[in-house]
Amino acid sequence: MKKKFSIEQPGLKQNPYTVPEGYFNDLQNIVSEKISSEGGESRVWRVLKPQLALVSVFIFVFLLGYGVFKLIPLQDSGRDIYLNQKYTLMEEYQLKNSFIDFYDQKADSAATQKSEINPEEIIEYLDTDAGLLYLASLEI
Amino acid sequence: MDDKDLMALFREKGNEHYAFNLIVNKYSERLYWHIRKMVASHDDANDLLQNSLLKAWKALPGFREESRLFTWLYRITTNEVLTFLKKKQLRSFLSLTDYSTKLENVLESDTYFNGDSAQKALHKAVLKLPEKQRIVFNLRYFDQMKYEDISEILGTSVGALKASYHHAAKKIEDSLQELL
Predict the structure, then answer these.
(1) Which of B38, B57, B107, B178 to mutate to test the interface with A (most CBs of A within 10 A)?
(2) What is the interface pTM, i.e. ipTM, of the complex?
(3) B154, CA 20 to 30 Å: which among A99, A140, B82, B93?
(4) Measured CA distances, A21 to A18, A24, A27, B107, B172 (Å)
């Protein structure tokens, strides 16, 4: 029967890991240097830094979006092109078939134009019809 | 110099750097081995130790000495390690690879590992344990830390820690029984 393995065997608890030579001596200096370099940063700057980074990201995204809309000309989509063509055709059809085609401009202007009457013709007309003058005098 | 004296020295104006250097000198090695047994790789252990010490430096002025300095340092380091492992596991999950297998591979190719085959098998089995169980096992088995101290570091009851350690030991023994 196989003997039960025990973790309490001698030697197993020993640390088998190693480190590069002089690692622990160097570590203290490395940590000291890091602490000194971090100390240069003021507390206010440490607090402000992430917030400024966030704001600059927002500004960058806004400018990027603005640039895209401003610099790249908007092109008509296929649907818009189709609608524009449709409206143009409809307009042309309407112009061809509407009453405007039958509108007689000369006749219209003749009807509305004030004919100029010669004053001599008026006097002559009044002379021929004296009865009208008589009637006018009666009214006074 | 004991921890209370170190803290008193740290609170003296102008002695902060000197006192902290003494703290680093006193605890960095223990903390390093604690991290190294969790992550296997020297480079990762080095990064995590440096980050932990920097965090300790920043937090030390606010340390109220309600717990002991060494358990406080262990707690910072352990949290750093657990955060690191979570990130690594998430990346492994996304790349569909098992992180414990990756750790085993690190151990297999590690130039800074001088153990024999039994030790290698033991450490591979340890790396397969769930993180918190691994921490408990490492602190108790390798560092021979008291359960009360481990309880202070992890914020878990002594009873739960004992149960966790025995589960871990059983798993490792079963795993090694098959291998050796």
Answers:
(1) B57
(2) 0.85
(3) B93
(4) 9, 8, 11, 19, 32
